[in-house]
Amino acid sequence: MTDRTQFHLPTADDCDPARCFVAIELSKKSWLVAVLTSLSEKVSLHTLPAGNGKELLALLERARRRSEDGLGRRVEILLCYEAGYDGFWLHRLLEGHEPAGEPPGAAIEDRPD
């Protein structure tokens, strides 16, 4: 008998937001972004240049819109990333630009050097 780990996303009412889970691995050269939505059981991986806030916010917005279009309801993005070299700067960026808010890239600068 083979044991298999299966992941089941929590169920929600139609009035509750669906969730899009995002994990970001930060390094000085690039960021690896993993995205899991209710539309698929597969995690999609994206590599972005380190410190590129515009591209990250655009990716988050695309994932949110794709999920909302497929599910027909609001989608909440839940992020996790490490504190450290880019973590504190990234937190300030994300706090000021909720992916569901203004268009990605609006008045966003890349990571300060």
Characterization of this structure:
This protein has 113 residues and is α+β, with helices and mostly antiparallel strands. It has a domain at 18-96: Nucleotidyltransferase, domain 5. Helix content is 26%, strand content 26%. The protein has helices at residues 53-71, 87-96; strands spanning 18-26, 30-36, 44-49, 75-81. The protein has a four-stranded mixed β-sheet with strand order 3-2-1-4, covered by helices on one side. Strand 1 (18-26) and strand 2 (30-36) form a beta hairpin. The termini are far apart. Residues 100-110 have low confidence and may be disordered.
Question: In brief, what are we looking at here?
Answer:
The protein is of the alpha+beta class. Helices cover 26% and strands 26% of the residues.
Q: How do the strands and helices of this protein lay out in sequence?
A:
Layout (H helix, E strand, L loop, with lengths): L17 E9 L3 E7 L7 E6 L3 H19 L3 E7 L5 H10 L17
Parallel strand pairs: 1-4
Antiparallel strand pairs: 1-2, 2-3
